[in-house]
Amino acid sequence: MIVFDQERPEDSAVVESLLDAAFGPNRFEKASYKLRINNPPIAEFSYVARDGDRIVGSVRYNKIQVCDLLRGTHINAVLLGPLAIVADRKDQGIGAQLLSRTIAALNAAGHHRILLVGDLAYYQRFGFVPVLPNYITLPGGKDARRLLVRQPESMSALPSVGKIIAGWSEEYRAAMPHERAYISAA
């Protein structure tokens, strides 16, 4: 039976091995990984799937900001990923359950703007849509053609031209825990 719970500090080495197997040795060269340097996963939203003593899946989230390059403002969000499932347990719905549970936990805590770099065909069923036609880049100035966002229509739109940086602005931290979901510098 699969049990879903928060990643524990002692899970870290196993999760890192799972991520190495899922994404290969070049995973740290990806633009999304640049956002994770000195920006640890948000512990309360980093989950694993356990089958007995074996970790068979993992998902993590990091704090990010979308900088509006035209207005000079910042919008806080969370970055989903990486999501990884062990090879012999893929296509069993474990990733979908990890996402459903963690997105619900994020929303319950007031985090409604979630971005990721991934395949629309998979993530669309969780409410993600392309960031395009907005031109928002990841570290290194790379155009994130695979950048997706999930947010309520009532939230302020992402900027037309922007870039993603690690961490949250002080303004957002000061508003926690109340009213943080809809803070926008716009």
How does this model look, in words?
By secondary structure, the protein is α+β, with helices and mostly antiparallel strands. 22% of the residues lie in helices and 32% in strands. It has helices at residues 12-23, 31-34, 94-108, 120-123, 170-175, and strands at 2-6, 47-51, 54-68, 73-85, 114-117, 129-130, 135-138, 142-143, 147-150, 161-166. Strands 1, 2, 3, 4, 5, 6, 7, 8, 9 and 10 form a 10-stranded mixed beta sheet that branches. The longest helix is centred in the middle third of the chain and has 15 residues, at 94-108.
Topology:
Layout: E1 2-6, H1 12-23, H2 31-34, E2 47-51, E3 54-68, E4 73-85, H3 94-108, E5 114-117, H4 120-123, E6 129-130, E7 135-138, E8 142-143, E9 147-150, E10 161-166, H5 170-175
Parallel strand pairs: 4-5, 7-10
Antiparallel strand pairs: 1-2, 2-3, 3-4, 3-10, 5-9, 6-9, 7-8
The low-confidence parts are 175-186
The number of distinct helices, counting runs of at least 4 residues, comes to 5
* Element string (H = helix, E = strand): EHHEEEHEHEEEEEH
Beta-strand percentage? 25-35%
* Secondary structure tally: strands: 10
- The whole-number mean of residue pLDDT values reads 89
> Percent range for helical residues?
10-25%
Computed CA radius of gyration, to the nearest angstrom:
16 Å
| Shape, principal axes of CA atoms | globular
Supply the helix-strand structural class: alpha+beta
The N- and C-terminal alpha carbons lie at a distance of 46 Å
- Characterize the largest beta sheet: strand count, sense, and whether it forms a barrel: 10 strands, mixed
